[in-house]
Amino acid sequence: MTNLWEDLETGPNPPEEIYAVVECLKGERNKYEYDKDVPGVVLDRVLHSNVHYPSDYGFIPRSYYDDEDPFDVLVLVEDQTFPGCVIEARPVALMKMDDDGEQDDKVIAVPTEDPRYDHVEGLEDLSDQQLDEIEEFFETYKNLEAGKEVETLGWEDKDAAKDAIEHAMDLYDENFDSPRN
């Protein structure tokens, strides 16, 4: 069975085009996580707060970030996909975030195969409402979990997102001894 974190490439042309492995679905409260030991998507928990994911959310394969997890990505979609779905996506922004004292930034991306997002090239193409909703979700989704503190730290452009993806790819290579070709 394929391990979507280790066996799948980071993307067809990273960091310009990446793969996003969906864990959590737009409009839902279930917090799924990919378990590489299963391998498969398992229910981690149901969000304690009465909020739902603003879009499909998951990770970038063959990446490892400063929080010692695969690098997080939120892919803007009109309709939810399914846990384990692989979406070819284009990074357009980076949301900086601190989760319990750890840097836990989020790449914001759009599907390369959805014409509704062809015009979205960067942060400036996202509406203030979209950005506010994403930020509000991540600021509040752990509010009712005991001892959890999350702080969003602002937005950066697609170049920052691509730099962060490169950093996550380098950390993966350093930690899991798998140099890129």
TrEMBL record:
UniProt xrefs under CDD domains: pyrophosphatase
EC top class, as a word: hydrolase
Residues given in the record as Mg(2+) 1 binding sites: D67, D72, D104
Sites where the protein binds Mg(2+) 2: D72
GO annotation terms (biological process): phosphate-containing compound metabolic process
Cofactors, names only: Mg(2+)
Keywords: Cytoplasm, Hydrolase, Magnesium, Metal-binding
SUPFAM superfamilies to which the protein is assigned, alphabetical: Inorganic pyrophosphatase (SSF50324)
Transferase among keywords: no
Gene3D superfamilies for this protein: Inorganic pyrophosphatase
Domain of life of the native organism: Archaea
Stated role: Catalyzes the hydrolysis of inorganic pyrophosphate (PPi) forming two phosphate ions.
UniProt protein name: Inorganic pyrophosphatase
